[in-house]
Design brief:
This protein is α/β, with parallel strands linked by helices. It is built from eleven helices and ten strands. The protein has helices spanning about 30-45, 85-105, 120-130, 155-160, 165-175, 180-185, 195-210, 215-230, 235-250, 250-265, 285-290; strands at about 5-10, 15-20, 50-55, 60, 110-115, 120, 130-135, 140, 180, 190-195. The longest helix has 23 residues, at about 85-105.
């Protein structure tokens, strides 16, 4: 399938999503949200890959929100900001956009962001929802929203304080200063810094290939446990770990790992099963209506 904002491919169980509008600074236009939702939703349902790598093209990873997004459903000078109904629509519009990045966070596979140049505004919202962040030596991060008279609202202020010290988040959110990649590395926002985009992409795909070799259900369990521990007490997270392990325990994976080690070959693990959705279901209403109802 062809997309307007992205190049997308899957090879050897690795999905690769690339911003493809460098002439427009890879800004996030209205269609961006629809296409991102479509791609991530398909990956979530089908589990046709085991890792997602997100990269970009040109001098900027992304310039953030495109101007025309603000003309689409947000109160402005051109919309009637004076009505309660108009303002009431805004939370739902924001939720729709927030959902796209939350879907990355909830994806049943790890998400690796490979960032070159500027990661600005909504770009920071996006990469904060990823699991691993790699960057080039010229990368920088900017909570740009304060510089254009607004508060960041798509996840940066909620996720970034759990990735770097809160005081640094205050500094960036209040001043609109850029965070250099060297400082981001020291703070732990990025995992590693590379000389060029090319070497970074090679490293991202290599890391993805290593993850692909691991059992997908255990990777999913690890992601669930890490996120739960981030948002809950240690006691609650340990209790949840017991429930999680009881649900995903698969002795065959352990046997396969030990057998493969003895044989000196890579282990082979099953993919996650596809998620069924009523939206995709073909349904014969007349045939179904002839069945006896089930009381619940």
């Amino acid at each position: 399938m062809t997309y307007r904002c992205f190049d997308f491919s899957i090879s050897n169980k690795v999905a690769h999503l690339t911003f493809n509008r460098p002439h427009a600074s890879n800004a996030m236009q209205p269609i961006f949200w629809r296409e991102l939702n479509e791609i991530v939703s398909a990956l979530q349902r089908m589990a046709s890959a085991r890792v997602l790598v997100i990269s970009s093209t040109g001098n900027l990873f992304t310039a953030g929100m495109a101007d025309d997004v603000f003309d689409y459903g947000f109160p402005s000078d051109k919309a009637d900001i004076g009505t309660a109904g108009g303002r009431a629509n805004m939370p739902m519009q924001l939720e729709d956009m927030q959902r796209a990045f939350t879907a990355l966070e909830r994806l049943r596979m790890p998400v690796i962001a490979a960032i070159q140049g500027g990661c600005i505004g909504s770009g920071v919202d996006m990469i904060c929802a990823c699991d691993i962040r790699l960057a080039t030596k010229d990368a920088f991060f900017c909570i740009q929203e304060i510089n254009v008279g607004m508060t960041a609202d798509l996840g940066t202020l909620q996720r970034l304080p759990k990735l770097i010290p809160e005081g640094i988040v205050h500094e960036l959110a209040y001043t609109g200063r850029s965070l250099s990649v060297q400082r981001a590395l020291a703070l732990g926002l990025v995992n590693e810094v590379f000389e060029s985009r090319e070497s970074m992409i090679v490293a991202a795909l290599q890391m993805a290939s290593e993850i692909v070799e691991k059992p997908p259900v255990a990777i999913w369990g690890s992601k669930q446990a890490i996120h739960y521990a981030r948002d809950h007490s240690t006691e609650d997270a340990l209790r949840q770990m017991g429930w999680l392990q009881a649900g995903i325990w698969h002795g065959a994976n352990l046997k396969e790992a030990l057998h493969a080690k003895r044989e000196g070959k890579p282990p082979q693990y099953a993919d996650l099963p596809a998620l069924k959705s009523f939206a995709d279901m073909k349904y014969d209403l007349e045939s179904a209506s002839s069945r006896e109802p089930v009381s619940r």
